[in-house]
Amino acid sequence: MQENIVEYNRDSKILRWLFRTKHWISSPSRIKNVFVRIMVYILLLNLTFVFVYPFMYMVVTALKSNADLNDFTVNWVPRSLKFENFAIAYHLLNYRSYLENSILITFLATLGHLISCSFIGYGFARYSFPFKNLLFLLVIVSFIVPVQTIIVPLYITYKNLGWLDTYLPLIIPTFFGFGMKGALFIFLFRQFYMGLPKELEEAAKIDGCGFFMTYVRIVMPIAKASFLVALVLSLVWHWNDFYEPAIYISKVTKAVLPSRINHLVSIVNAPPEELFDLLELVEGEDTLNNAVMMAGTFLIILPVLIVFAFAQKQFMQGIETTGMKE
Question: pTM, whole model, 2 decimals?
Answer without folding.
Answer: 0.76
